[in-house]
Amino acid sequence: MRIPLAIIGLICAVAVSGCGKKELRDIRSTGTGPDEFLVLPPKPLSAPDSYADLPVPTPGGQNRTDVNPQAEAVAALGGRPDALLPAGSVPASDAGLVTASSRYGVSPDVRQVLAAEDAAFLKRRRRGGRIKIAPVDRYEQIYSRQTLDPFAANEAFRRAGVATPSAPPASGE
């Protein structure tokens, strides 16, 4: 019995499509595991000189092994811990940027509003594309109209006379 050439071609196309380069574009969380950036390794424990002199535990109080973890992280990364600003404050060098960006008001729930709008956008865009034979880049499909071509933008800035850094050539060149 002879298998039609079209069926053999379709089988080969499906088999080869799985060998494509998969990018890390699916940025949805795949589980409920811990956030690896919130895990902070503690300093080694040591026995106190006297157990009777230990302070009373206070929930939410300061940790005796990591007195100032933020300053220690800044020092470990080569920064100056004495230059740390209080939480919520803005450095003087960024004051103009904050003023300009908040000139029309600041919405305190901007993250929740954007998440709801993005969820609605994804729901509208996914309606016709649920069934696919081969793996596809959903991120590229859904956000293709909002993607910026960096090479075209770089050329536009260069034509306008703006000094731009050198960039690698486009992959097709």
Structure description:
This protein has 173 residues and is mainly alpha-helical. It has a domain of 47 residues. Helix content is 34%, strand content 0%. It contains 6 helices and no strands. The longest helix is centred in the C-terminal third of the chain and has 16 residues. The protein starts with a helix and ends in a 14-residue tail after the last helix.
Short description:
With 173 residues, the protein is mainly α.
Task: Set out the fold topology.
Layout: H1 5-17, H2 69-76, H3 95-101, H4 110-125, H5 138-142, H6 150-159
Please name the defining characteristics of this protein.
single chain; 173 residues; mainly alpha; 6 helices; extended
Segments where pLDDT lies below 50 for 5+ residues? none
| Annotation field: number of helices | 6
Radius of gyration based on Cα positions? 27 Å
Instruction: Give the SSE string.
Output: HHHHHH
Total beta strand runs:
0
| Spatial gap, N to C terminus | 48 Å
